[in-house]
Amino acid sequence: MIAKLSLLTFSPGMWQVVIRSVYCHLFECLRERSHMEIIPYEECRAKTTADGKPGIGVLQHCRHVAKVAKALAAVAHPAVKTILGTNPGAVAAVHDNGKISPGFQKKYFNEHLKRCYPVLASMSNANFETDHTLIGAAAIRRYLMSPFSVSAYAEIVGAHHGRGHQSIPRTDEGGKFGGKPWAQERHRFIERLAEEFGPLPEEPPDPAKRNVLAGLVTIADWIGSDETFFPPEGLPSYTDLDKKAADAAEKCGFKIPDIMPGLSFETVFGFPPYPIQKTFIDCIDGPGLYILEAPMGIGKTEAALYGAYLLMTEGHNRGFYFGLPTRLTSDKIHERVTDFLKTVCKDETGPLLAHGHAWMRAFENGGKGFSAGADWFSPRKRKLLFPFGVGTIDQALMSVLRVKHFFIRAFALAGKVVILDEVHSYDVYTGSLMEWMIRQLLEIGCTVIVLSATLTGDRRSRLFSKNASPVDNSNYPLITCEKAGKIEAFAGSSGKNRTYGIRIMDLSDADMAAIAVEKAEKGHCVLCIANTVARAQNWYKAVAQKMIEARFSIGLIHSRFPAFRRDELETEWIAKLGKNGNRPGGCVLVGTQVLEQSLDIDADFLITELAPTDMVLQRMGRQWRHSRKNRPSEAPETIIVSGDPQSTPNPESIIEAFGKSNCHVYMPYVLWRSLQTLKSRSEILLPANIRDLLEATYSADGKREPEPVLRLREMLEKRLANLRQFANAARSDVKSLGVLEDREGVSTRYSEMPTADALLVTSVDSTGYKAVIEPIDGQGPVSLNAFQRDFGATVRLHRNLVSMPAWHLEKLGGIQKPEWLNKHFYEPVAVLLQDPLTGALTFDGKPSGYTYDPLRGLMRVDGRIARDLPRNPVEDYDDLNAFDITLHEW
């Protein structure tokens, strides 16, 4: 009684303390109750059915995925099997152990828990971690008690949905994971699967091989989660899981390609190999790095493909990926590789086209002939998994970048032949990524074949292992091989040399046009290559004005035409200047760098702006490319258009002499070195002089250069150092967060000149979520609806896009994608409406400062509107060139 009375005498403050203590005690009791109310792993669910009900359990799903992983490993190349180890299903089996947690079960199945586990169901979700990849990673780390800071297998489990974790807890016994009882249940689950699929090795593999294993786990999870093969309601109890998994893998296209052995080079391509091709083929005797440096048009593509054929038929590799600088070059090579595979494959397997716009060509050039299950590879992250692929190098580079699911691409490339063409084209950022990628590819059972016509010795040396003995060989053509850390070099024969006359002239647009017209009237097919779209458009205009009465054909090709129009122009000019073209008696084709590599055209006479020496040589390679009779001259001739920066007092005046727009495309120091190399020559012997010209340009020590030039060199070196740092920061690891965008060109190329897509139309009639528009292609109107997909309409819209400076559209009010385009574009897109009389383009009712016509493409216009907008000189850059050719390695 005294005790009861004493309670009544508590002060209000004391009552608050008592109530708080009682509340905390009750809460702790509730927590203990919830921890004790665990769900046995046999009852934990992994999937939901179509009607939202609980589906199969975690154990069943993990067994499915483990079986698929074993099936995938069974058809992998022996080199890949070695990487995956003798127990490839073990990690896949425990990949979803984190779903055995209160947070995951409550997040997806709480209604079900209310009937069976009411206390747990009543708990707030905020008390628990719901990310099952983090929980699972922590569980694996504690289970293995690895001596390493973090177990590689914990990192793989934590990253199987594409993104790793910045840190993985040392234990999964924390309260947010459900405490010790739930941790013990996960431990019991892991032990159960270890009995069936074997234990997890304690020693982690090296990073490159770890990436391959991570890719296997994720792909197995994708197939094991495919409701076509493994319905969420579960499989019948009598199902043979091994057979089911093998069938699923095969139907998804994972099977060994059937290649006919013993075919000769001549049987495959229809002609005997040239000497350099034969020398290269004779060098192929196993996996390694092979670098083929040979002149333009000598048949490097055929040599590389036949080398890949030998490696595959002899069992060294399985499948290949052909990586190129641009989408356009990828499209052209894709056609040739399609014909190659038709000859060497017993079935109708064709190469999958892998680049950002490949989806628009899904049913062209081999798409219809894919083997069963090839449609599984359509999503962009799966393209490289197909046995044979052609696309941009970007797709392969994402295997070493911090992008989501980068390890999928590592697994996809493992054990294949990877052919990298035009490697001299890449700047230091992309080039550094390529060097790291080559090292990883060699570690995961690949053979890498590198092709280039203009590779410097220093750039070549960077492709080899750091501990490999350097090779000092100045021969050209040259074949260099690295196998097991040993480098060998073989001199090749390029055949007959040809003399090219060169002149360097400071020409106005009108003077350039006068020379081009004079040559065309004498029967020359003249090629004029400018460094920027704006200069190319001015050159075209000047030639058209100088030409009298349309005596010959003139044309313009650059990146600021919509795709439909660019295809028309390329088809027209390949028909004129291609290998089997109906050659006109004189013509002028003006263009930008797209003519330098992308099109197989053959000119008699070249006019080009000054560019880095290797680019000038590439442009010169467009002359006299094919054997022809009755040329209008006895030898090819090149005019290089450049200002004279001699005796200039400061860097600014050198830049002025070269032209500011040119110095936004190419670093001025590189232009200065190139000019010094070329100006003392009146003739160049190709290919004999290629090596000397490259080394003379890129091996300067700078000791005797004028002070203004040394300052330009310092600018270049600072720029190169920054790009290397940016590239290093972008490199990947399973434990890295996938923070970069896994879109082609976004993370694989460095650019300070962002662009935006603009849709060109001649009319728009829109009412909210619906619209009837008429694209500029003249093919009639198209109806669009924000809630309806139309693949045909999507393709057509994308073929009416042009790229323009993003800053310009932002100044006009920003890019606001209309609602009726939602089903056709993921990214923002501007709609530009063309005036039918003037060609002027308006954006959101305001003058854009641009105009379009089918002969010159998208153009800036002079006048008040254009002057009122801030001018950014870098907008003249040919920004649709997929590769950035502004910088070179020194």
For the structure shown, list the relevant keywords:
890 residues; alpha/beta; Hypothetical protein af1432; Rossmann fold; 5 domains; eight-stranded mixed sheet; 33 helices; 23 strands; 14% strand; disordered N terminus; disordered C terminus
How does this structure look, described?
Helix 9 packs parallel to helix 11 (207-224) and helix 28 (668-679) packs across helix 30. This protein is 41% helix and 14% strand. The chain has 5 domains: 1-34; 37-251, Hypothetical protein af1432 (Orthogonal Bundle); 265-491, 3-Layer(aba) Sandwich (Rossmann fold), CATH 3.40.50.300; 498-686, P-loop containing nucleotide triphosphate hydrolases (Rossmann fold), CATH 3.40.50.300; 755-876, no CATH class. By secondary structure, the protein is of the alpha/beta class. It contains 33 helices and 23 strands. It is globular. Strands 3-4-2-5-6-1-7-8 form an 8-stranded mixed β-sheet, sandwiched between helices. Strands 16, 17, 18, 19, 20, 21, 22 and 23 form an 8-stranded mixed β-sheet that branches.
Strand order of the biggest β-sheet: 3-4-2-5-6-1-7-8
Please, how many helices?
Answer: 33
Proportion of beta-strand residues: 5-15%
Give the count of structural domains. Answer: 5
Number of strands: 23
Q: What would the average pLDDT be, to the nearest integer? A: 82
Q: Under the CATH scheme, which architecture of the largest domain would be assigned? A: 3-Layer(aba) Sandwich
What is the assigned CATH homologous superfamily of the largest domain? P-loop containing nucleotide triphosphate hydrolases
The proportion of residues forming helix, as a percent range, comes to: 40-55%
Main sheet overview? 8 strands, mixed
